[in-house]
Amino acid sequence: MTDTNRVKLKPGDTIGILGGGQLGRMLAMAAARLGLRCQVFSPDPDSPAFDVVLNATCAEYADVEALELFANDVDVITYEFENVPAAAAMVLDARRPVLPNRKILETTQDRLAEKDFVARLGIGTAVYADVTSVTSLREAIFRIGLPAVLKTRRFGYDGKGQAIIREGDDIAKVWTSLGTKQAILEAFVPFEREISVIAARSAAGQVECFDVTENEHRDHILKLSRAPAPIPDSLADEARSVASRIASALDYVGVLAVEMFVLANGTGPKVLVNEIAPRVHNSGHWTLDGASVSQFEQHIRAIAGWPLGKPVRHGEVVTMTNLIGDEINSYEEWLTVQGATIHIYGKGAPRPGRKMGHVTEVRPPKGK
């Protein structure tokens, strides 16, 4: 394996990005501002990230020859999504540094492995159980109780690959509908709010966290993010500490997001980790216009071996609104909103549930 601690790019060097979606697009744009080139690898010929780079590789992740040629053209490799096929990551890792380290994917691609990892750190999560059959599902429900959430261990996002089980539901039918033999059952968390922390960590161990963000989902898709989250400072410090501990325990290089639930109970609020995303994250898009350094630039700095920036929020409150499906057609309305900046991803035709762009709104400090 290559020594990732020796990565030290200079302006003019090339970063390889696996994945051609909007996250890859924004990573490439951040790199360009720093004088770094990017080459994108994606099997989708309509990848929006292709529009902002000079060189791109359109091939399947199973195409070993294409992967090798791609690796030969770049100095370091990163990814915009966590479900990079293990075989592809292995081929690339043998030729160039892959950051974050591909071994981290083994933990974060599997919800059970991820939950076990967080639990070993002594960090709170929802009560959970491994499920491999209808019988083990019934046993898990007996231990955990209902309502509960059944999730596939792999490849779930935006509400896909999961189902809430309530009293009276047909357990066998729910299990069959999920279409998997590897799942995890989690106790339903009666949370007060959902938050996330975007953290960046350098190879030298420097960790910088952005303000804790409050997130609102609609139809299981992130709709709104607000920074800072309206929570006590002590709780925000705890959330940032959790994210920092996770990043350090993973020996992480780059940006990751830790999604958490805030609970209100008799002893005061506390946080439980829901999921880890080993990449730049939708809930960090507000940093593009609302902070002194964006999550995308932080990620580029980290994998380039450059010092991280110290994030400073520009406004009193920064809001990010996802434009989903046909909502993108209202882009002109946002152009007239004071303090708003619109980002359009350059995707094809809008369809329900598809993230087409986002808007950030910065509310200046009072008195300005």
Automatic annotation (TrEMBL):
Entry keyword annotation includes ATP-binding: yes
Location of the ATP-grasp domain: 115-304
GO terms classed as biological process: 'de novo' IMP biosynthetic process
Pathway: Purine metabolism; IMP biosynthesis via de novo pathway; 5-amino-1-(5-phospho-D-ribosyl)imidazole-4-carboxylate from 5-amino-1-(5-phospho-D-ribosyl)imidazole (N5-CAIR route): step 1/2
A Gene Ontology term for the protein's cellular component: cytosol
Alphabetic keyword roster: ATP-binding, Ligase, Nucleotide-binding, Purine biosynthesis
Annotated positions binding ATP: 111, 151, 156-162, 186-189, 194, 217, 274-275
Superkingdom to which the source organism belongs: Bacteria
GO MF terms held by the record: 5-(carboxyamino)imidazole ribonucleotide synthase activity; ATP binding; metal ion binding; phosphoribosylaminoimidazole carboxylase activity
Keyword Zinc listed: no
The EC number(s) this enzyme carries: 6.3.4.18
Record's catalysed reaction(s): 5-amino-1-(5-phospho-beta-D-ribosyl)imidazole + hydrogencarbonate + ATP = 5-carboxyamino-1-(5-phospho-D-ribosyl)imidazole + ADP + phosphate + 2 H(+)
Function of the protein: Catalyzes the ATP-dependent conversion of 5-aminoimidazole ribonucleotide (AIR) and HCO(3)- to N5-carboxyaminoimidazole ribonucleotide (N5-CAIR).
Subunit-level organization: Homodimer.
Entry's family note: Belongs to the PurK/PurT family.
Listed HAMAP family: PurK (MF_01928)
Protein's name according to its UniProt entry: N5-carboxyaminoimidazole ribonucleotide synthase
